[in-house]
Amino acid sequence: MARLDIFLVLAITCTWAAAAQPQPNDDEVTWAKRVETGTQLITTLQFYFHDNPRGQNPTTTNIAQGPQTNNSSTLFGLLTMLDDPLTVGPDPSSKVVGRARGLYGSAGQMELRLIMVVSYGFTDGIYNGSSFSLLSINPALQPVREMAIVGGTGLFRLASGYAVVRTYWLDATTGNVITGYNVTIATYL
Ligand SMILES: *[C@@H]1O[C@H](CO)[C@@H](O)[C@H](O)[C@H]1NC(C)=O
Ligand SMILES: *[C@@H]1O[C@H](CO)[C@@H](O)[C@H](O)[C@H]1NC(C)=O
Ligand SMILES: *[C@@H]1O[C@H](CO)[C@@H](O)[C@H](O)[C@H]1NC(C)=O
Ligand SMILES: *[C@@H]1O[C@H](CO)[C@@H](O)[C@H](O)[C@H]1NC(C)=O
């Protein structure tokens, strides 16, 4: 009986230890990691977002604004559509792993606050065809900000999570910006 108990304890401990191990690397990508924790799969992603309002190949277009927007220091009411490349590194010529598509709107009257309604869709490795949806306020002038991830498709079905983002590079004249994303997503096993 005592031996059986020890066996059970060992079996449970080993199962638990196995569950905490990283996933066997099937066809993983360099910019994402997956770890199983009990009933959840935690995926961490690192990539760069290139937003180019002006220049030769703009990635955004302003689609609407309010009657007072031109007189607002924060361009309150300006709505912009984006289709921005996501790359593995900060260099715009590094490998493209997906695109961020959606809208941001100036939602702060006193200070710059962008409401982000954006789908991040991936095209690389096992994440090809998967996406997550971000819906959050972006205090874009703060060096580091956090935004909420509210859902997803493919490998990100039933996703919840957050993105911690940092401005990597900003061209004050064009408004072109490169932002580093550290994303944590929980899905179910
Ligand atoms: C706001 O400014 C832009 C660019 O200067 C101009 O094209 C537009 O007509 C202005 N809109 C309003 C509502 O004044
Ligand atoms: C914008 O401000 C200018 C001067 O500050 C004013 O003459 C103009 O009427 C304002 N425009 C609107 C649309 O409020
Ligand atoms: C991603 O999936 C699409 C549709 O299945 C396919 O056409 C494309 O070649 C894939 N891209 C990569 C990089 O695997
Ligand atoms: C993102 O993660 C990297 C590697 O862990 C870290 O060096 C960097 O500081 C993180 N960035 C933010 C904005 O947290």
From TrEMBL:
It holds the Pfam family Dirigent. One of its GO terms (cellular component) is apoplast. Gene3D superfamilies: Allene oxide cyclase-like (2.40.480.10). Residues 1-19 form the signal peptide. Belongs to the plant dirigent protein family. Homodimer. This is Dirigent protein. It comes from Sesamum alatum.
